[in-house]
Design a protein that fits this description.
The radius of gyration is 26 Å and the shape is globular. The strands form four sheets. It has a 20-stranded antiparallel beta sheet that branches. The chain has a two-stranded antiparallel ribbon with strand order 3-4. The protein has six helices and 26 strands. By secondary structure, it is mainly beta.
Length: 442
């Protein structure tokens, strides 16, 4: 039996991207012990742009377990139930958008930049999961978990077509056909021209306890999810596994705001050259960009519901048990987000010292990085089990001075992944097997 307690079990935080490292944002300046950012005029923009991809993603996910329970049923069955609060965020930025912003529009004069790959999706939801696993044969074990989902808040961009035409006079013309779908406590106000005048967060419902409960309950935004997996013993020492997780969707029908645009408009707030030459501040450039975008959208009067799908993962793995306490592992994990693939491959060495201590060291190749190390540790003290897992640990660090203080920054680091918590566990004590008595048959 295990019991996961609220806020101290099942804490997971994952942040990653495929185009920028810590060392790309803050670098050594002149003198060499100083720090400059990518917005500094002395920053080597060409070196930064050389790392930019055609499609650049940034994503984050976090999970906090509110409750977890698991227990044995029958000879080899196992039942588990949990409640989790989850946040998923993902944004994809076209490479030409960086080039236009950092290098200016001169290289694009007289041409159209295709930004149809731009998109964003964020969702906060609660998951109720009920699962069961058991041995189908002596060598095959299968598990399945059904999930009931309640959406709390969501915002997404559905991009049908988006582009920027840079005229010969270096003005920009946006042509856009996209929708912004929001489920949350926000009010959008229009001006006389049916453009967005302001977006205001509605905090009225949070002034009463009943309003808070209504918001966090996710009532009106429901969905379903599914996890399925299996392990198979090829031999006494080799075990293979496979799983598909987070197959599911949420239908959002509460607090709906839908913005859409299908037109052309002039846009002049994108070029950062004005910041580098000192004619505009970064705040002024940002405000110009927001004003241009606000004036392009018209509010859809319909409050029709919309659907978002969960990013789902496919895992293939295997382990080779060298001894009963030491094994080597392989894992391939693919995450599918809006038709894009995120691939990671991990090799690991694992030690399991009975009920008392488990430890693992892993090497992961992901996000075009090949120097990612990970480590895991779990130990049991009585009925309490503590665990800590960290992936993509930075191995190279720079010491930079900022005035009189020293700042230590990871050199190549674009991913952060941390899991930690404490469970209450009962039973599952490993006992030494005694040799069966020998029976002689005459």
């Amino acid at each position: 039996v295990y019991i996961g307690l609220p806020a101290i079990s099942g804490i997971n935080l994952n942040i990653n991207n495929n185009f920028v490292n810590f060392s790309d944002v803050f670098i050594k300046g002149q003198p060499k012990d100083s720090i400059i950012s990518f917005l500094n005029p002395n920053y080597n923009v060409d070196k930064f742009l050389a790392k930019i991809k055609d499609r650049n993603f940034m994503e984050s996910e976090s999970t906090i377990q509110l409750l977890g329970i698991g227990f044995s049923v029958g000879k080899d069955g196992y039942v588990f139930f949990d409640i989790n609060d989850k946040f998923d965020g993902n944004i994809v930025l076209p490479g030409d958008l960086f080039k236009l912003a950092l290098k200016g529009n001169e290289a694009f004069a007289g041409s159209r930049i295709d930004l149809s790959s731009l998109r964003a999706d964020m969702k906060y939801y609660r998951e109720f999961g009920l699962g069961y696993s058991r041995n189908i044969t002596d060598r095959l074990r299968v598990g399945i978990k059904g999930k009931l989902l309640f959406g709390i808040a969501s915002a997404s961009i559905s991009n049908k077509s988006l582009g920027i035409t840079v005229n010969n006079d270096y003005s920009h013309v946006f042509d856009a056909n996209l929708d912004v779908n929001i489920s949350g406590p926000v009010n959008v106000y229009m001006d006389s021209k049916h453009n967005v005048d302001s977006v205001v967060f509605d905090d009225s419902r949070f002034k009463t306890s009943s309003g808070v409960r209504d918001f966090i309950s996710g009532k009106g935004n429901t969905g379903l999810g599914l996890d399925i997996g299996a392990t198979f013993d090829l031999t006494e020492k080799i075990v293979v596994s496979a799983s598909i997780t987070d197959l599911g969707f949420i239908r959002w029908g509460k607090d709906i705001t839908r913005l859409s645009t299908d037109n052309q408009f002039v846009f002049d707030g994108l070029n950062l050259d004005n910041y580098f030459n000192g004619t505009k501040t970064i705040d002024e450039i940002g405000q110009n960009m927001i004003d241009s975008l606000k004036n392009s959208f018209v509010l859809t009067k319909s409050k029709a519901a919309f659907t978002t799908f969960l990013p789902f993962g496919v895992s293939l793995g295997g382990s080779y048990n060298i001894t009963s306490k030491f094994s080597l592992g392989f894992l391939s994990y693919t995450r599918i987000i809006s038709k894009q693939l995120r691939e990671a491959i991990t090799l690991s060495a694992n030690i399991n010292l009975g009920n008392a201590l488990s430890a693992s060291i892993g090497y992961t190749a992901a996000n075009r990085q090949y120097n990612n190390l990970g480590a895991a540790l779990a130990f049991r003290a009585g009925v309490a089990q503590f665990y800590l897992v960290s992936d993509r640990i930075p191995v190279m660090w720079d010491k930079l001075k900022n005035g009189n203080s020293t700042v230590v920054l990871p050199t190549n680091w674009n991913t952060f992944n941390l899991r930690l918590g404490m469970n209450l566990v009962f039973g599952n004590r490993i006992k030494e097997k005694k040799d069966k008595p020998m029976i002689l048959v005459e």
